[in-house]
Amino acid sequence: MGRRVRYDNTTLHGLLIVDKPLGVTSMDVCRVVRRRAGNCKTGHAGTLDPLATGVLIVCLGNATKAVDQLMGQTKVYETTVDLSAFTNTDDAEGEREPVDIAAPPSEADVRAALDDLTGDIQQAPPLYSAIKVNGQRAYKLARQGSDIELPKRPVRIDRIDLLRYDWPMLDLRITCGKGTYIRSLARQIGEALGTGGYLTALRRTAIGEYTIDMATPLDDIAEPITDNDVVPTPGTKNPSPPSGGEAG
User: pLDDT digits over 114-152, tens only?
Assistant: First the structure.
């Protein structure tokens, strides 16, 4: 048996809604929160890639038991898709593979493609993802040049709102269920239009009732974190903004 982790702060319980900045991992955020919470048990309810920003729910103490419940809630994202190319990572971190097209799709074509991708759909995760293939992370195998193919799986897209279309850039607001990869959706949009499709920006604006208006920027999180800085665990009380200052 492994050694049991000892936590110094065992009295702090609740959720910290963080506005994750660009360039850090979700676990980086957890490490910062854990340190500022006096080494309290800490976990997050839904990974954001380093190139994504926005709502990250960090669970403290007994609230870590609610991770699965929180991860199952509906999520809202705002994203920008570049239709002029694909990349091997489906985002701006990868190598661009430009596509040649006779003419850019019309706005009507774009709206039709978005409608076709709304509802219960099948989606293949990105090759550069944390999904395990024969016990190894897919992104590690992809970096090694292994020829892998991830099977499609069902996901739910509740709605896709077209915010702006100015070829080749497409701004969208996406409401979706658990397990949806917005990077994969960008690729699927490109495939449906006969163009490219990769993310240049991604921001999560809500997980269930927990919205970006409730989120505190990482640099503004209090030290030490106290009961006044967290919101109640689901099932104990309706979520409300922290009372220890203005939320970011």
Answer: 999 999 999 988 876 667 666 767 656 556 666 677 789
14-72+209-229 carries CATH number 3.30.2350.10: yes
Count CB-CB contacts under 10 A for residue 34: 21
Tokens of residue 222, six digits = 């209090």
Which CATH number, 3.40.630.30, 3.30.2350.10, 3.40.50.150, 3.60.20.10, labels domain 75-123+149-206? 3.30.2350.10
| 149-164 burial code (b ≥16 CB/10 A, e <16) | ebeeeebbbeebeeee
Alpha helices in the chain (DSSP H): 26-36, 67-71, 107-116, 138-143, 182-193
List residues with catalytic annotation.
49
Q: Give this prediction's pTM.
A: 0.88
Phi, psi of 67, rounded to the nearest 5 degrees: -55, -50
**Cα 133 from Cα 124, distance rounded (Å):** 13
Task: Report the helix count and the strand count for the chain, using DSSP H and E.
Answer: 5, 14
**Domain spans in the chain, listed from the N-terminal domain onward:** 14-72+209-229, 75-123+149-206
50: which DSSP letter? T
